[in-house]
Fold this sequence. Notes:
Protein name: Putative ATP synthase F0, A subunit
Distance between the termini: 28 Å
CATH class: Mainly Alpha
Number of helices: 24
Order of helices and strands: HHHHHHHHHHHHHHHHHHHHHHHH
Strand content: under 5%
Transmembrane segments: 28-45, 57-78, 90-107, 113-136, 148-175, 207-229, 264-286, 298-317, 324-344, 350-371, 392-412, 424-447
Subcellular location: Cell membrane
CATH superfamily: MFS general substrate transporter like domains
Largest sheet: none
CATH topology: Growth Hormone, Chain: A
InterPro entries: MFS (IPR011701), MFS_trans_sf (IPR036259)
CATH architecture: Up-down Bundle
Number of domains: 1
Low-confidence stretches: none
Keywords: Membrane, Transmembrane, Transmembrane helix
Oligomer: single chain
Number of strands: 0
Mean pLDDT: 86
Amino acid sequence: MRKAKNKRDKIEEEEAIKNWDPRYKRNVILYLCIYGVMGAVTGITNDASLSYYSLVAPHLISALNLFEAMVSILISILILSVHNMGYRKVLLALPPLTAVFMILTTLTTNQPIIIISYILSSSAIGVYDLMYPLMWTSYVPSKIRTKMFTVVMVINLVTESIMMFIGGKAVVYIFSKLQGISYRAASNLSAQPDAMKGVMLANYTNAYKWVIIITALITFIAFALALFIKDKPVDYRSTEDKSAKPSMQEKMATYKKLVNYKTVVWVLYICAVQLGAGLFIQYVPIYLNNILHIPRGITSTINTLQTVAIFVGYFFAPYLAKKLGSIMTIAISTIICAPLMLVMANAKMLGTGAVLFGVVGTILFFHSGLANASMPVQQEVQMILVDKDLRPAFSAVIEVALSVVGVIDGLFTEFYLLKTQQGYANAYIIAAALYIVSGIVLIIVFAKKYNRILRDSHASEEAK
């Protein structure tokens, strides 16, 4: 029976691919390439750049969540432009915006300018994460949509992990050349950046600058690819004529659809998880390098393995959604991360040297894989909770909600949690508690009625 069902599913998927609209398919392939390029960029911005900012703009790092909240607000504004401008125009505007402000962070020592540039470049990069859910629900056949969500996220992670691996090593390599020492000596020095002074510190900082500048230039590949995207108004809104504006009553009726049981519970869940994640995710490179004193080159390797684990987790998403249901997949993957977080909170007790590197690397590998095994499912669920016209607005609502969470995280980390080194460890304990509570709540209030929401949505699309 199971074999027969799997065979039938495979035949239906092959039929969906065969009948795929050529324009839709072309746009999907182009965006896969674009998102791959931007994955390479985030491999630097999520790792090496943060270490650079900890040297030149320490206030940016200590209040990172606060500034990430500003990023979320800007992303919510930018993503709303899709409804009027379309996918192509937005994708053409993002790479220059990213590159200019990334490079600007390397040309000044003025902390406010660096912070503003970080906010603007991060906002442009962040829009890419919200573009593919919108495009996929328009362009990808329902039969293969969950798998294609996995594919796009995997491609992004593959390029991110490659660049993250290269980025840390490149910083050490350039530093060794500028300092006139061996790679091994430079790697050992990178484990204690706080001890660097004078010319050595300048050379170490300049090594980061070169890596960031090269990365900024890579974004123009994404610009070139976006030139070939062909979209139509019907792809991103129900009415082709945007001059035909709805009445105020119609607008109120439409936007009331954003406030219902499903959307409210979903937003609360996302916010609770992000409240916990925001306390430690951005600080992983700093926790490893500055607190646990793991050398910079090894830190980049651990972070790369962590990214690879996410990639592995994504592959299990379609299987888990079929077996457990979409909501149970999301909730369970959230809850089982908690024990690993508690171990990370006590990482200093795990030993030193190679033992510490191996244990921490293993913990982060499993944590990242488990935490992200449901992400493709989560992205698709988020888009089918509302109608096509409301998807950009719903994405914007979530970003605004996350910006509020970011402010809370930022104020908490800046003025209390990260006042001491122990705060970096305590962040994992608080996050573990939030993950457990949010996962349980999601199961209690959402699972019974909406656990098979993806299956029901796909069946509804096919019936039209």
